[in-house]
Amino acid sequence: MSEAINTVAAPKKRNHFISYIKGYSIIAVLLIHMIDWSNILIGTTGNNLKELLYPGVFFFMATSGSVVYIAYSKSETWIKPAKKLFLRGLQLIGIYYLYNLIKLFIYDFSKEPFYWQYTANGKMTWQNILELKAYSAPISILLTIGVMIMLSPLLLAISKKAKHPNWVLLALFGILMSGVYTYSWGGPMADFLFARNNIMFPIALWSIPFLAGYLLASFGFEEKKAWWLAIFTPLFIGMYYLQVKSGSDIRPSHFMYPLRAYYIVASLFFTSVLFYFFTWFEKISFAPAKKFLALIRFLGDYTLAVYIWHWIVVDTTIWIFYPNTKLIWITVPIFMVVYLYVKRDKFKEYLVNQV
Q1: From the CB of residue 130, how many other CB atoms can be counted at a distance below 10 Å?
Q2: For residue 101, what is the enclosing H or E element?
Q3: What is the dihedral of CA 246, 251, 252, 253, to 10 degrees?
Q4: Contact 39, 112 (CB under 8 A)
Q5: If we measure between CA atoms, which residue out of 339, 307, 343 comes closest to residue 142?
Q6: What is the C-alpha to C-alpha distance for residues 202 and 188, in angstroms, rounded to an integer?
Q7: What is the mean pLDDT of residues 232-261?
Q8: Mean pLDDT of all residues in the chain?
Q9: Rounded to an integer, what distance in angstroms lies between the CA atom of residue 154 and that of residue 89?
């Protein structure tokens, strides 16, 4: 996504904020997995700080919607990008199945207690993986993102054809929230969409952050950051107050599975805070700060590759060194260094191109 280096004329200034948010999301997801899969006990303070990582899962889905708008909203027609988006969605679904099936046939699942829920009762089979009744790798968010990307041309159609597309999309978001959380859906299709009989991130629920990300980009990403802060701050404070008053859990992460409104609002509030954080950070002239931002942008633009490769590293580490799962904290950082080295020419572009 980086502009090519031009030694004759200054490159056109581009908006880096989608890359910043995506970069934060992949770093947060990596840290969550490293903490959880290494079985490190981090205590009360650590768990509270860990709450700052969990919006990264929301961002992982939401920025997929944002990218659809940013990449294709300027197309002459919504039909032209539809084929690309359909194939991209199929690619993500294909990556999910490929990884799971390869791992199924080569991995020693006795080294990882997490999978005993499937191996102990004979559910770890290729048939169950294909039918979404089991998995050999917990990367099912790729399935849901894939489905949403395949459906996203419908959003582009609204953006292109509706007289007031942003307000139509906002109304659609309200209908989706209301339908998901105020109505009791039944039947085989509802069972699939709410993942009552499969291992997916429920499409009905996780379409909400995807649409939220599309809406943020449609209305205006960080350039409308004052709006977002003004909207999501009182919403979050109000919901936090209701949680405290009712004696409910105040940790947003406890409302991720299944996805609930409290986690959604907390994540959107955190998004608006990050807009201000990165706006401030961009103004720092200190060289290490510029390198940090370049790294965030680089990782944000290569989230899928980093996501898949880090799982391979985690799985391989546990397979070889079990029960010393804490070695993940060595092998994953080594992978990151190696990945940056392999991509060093591309990363240098990010270091040079700060506009």
Answers
A1: 12
A2: helix 79-106
A3: -130
A4: no
A5: 307
A6: 14
A7: 95
A8: 91
A9: 14
**Mean pLDDT confidence for 128-140:** 96
Band of residue 8 on the pLDDT scale cut at 50, 70, 90: very low
Q: Which two tokens stand for residue 221?
A: 């990403």
| Strand extents, DSSP E, 7-76 | none
Closest CA to 160 of 44, 268, 263, 75: 75
In which region does residue 145 sit, left (phi positive, over 0), alpha (psi from -120 to 50) or beta (all else)? alpha
Question: What's the pLDDT tens digit per position in 288-331?
Answer: 888 999 999 999 999 999 999 999 999 999 999 999 999 999 99
* Local structure of residue 54 (DSSP, 8 states): T
User: What are 310's two structure tokens?
Assistant: 């880090």
Q: Do you know the residue count of the chain?
A: 355
Radius of gyration of the chain (CA): 21
322 closest CA partner among 118, 112, 138? 112
Q: Residue 88 carries which side chain, given as an amino acid letter?
A: R
CA distance 89 to 293: 29
Residue 52 phi/psi, 5° resolution? -70, -15
CA–CA gap between residue 273 and residue 280 (Å, rounded): 11
pTM: 0.91
The tokens of 206 are what? 């996780």
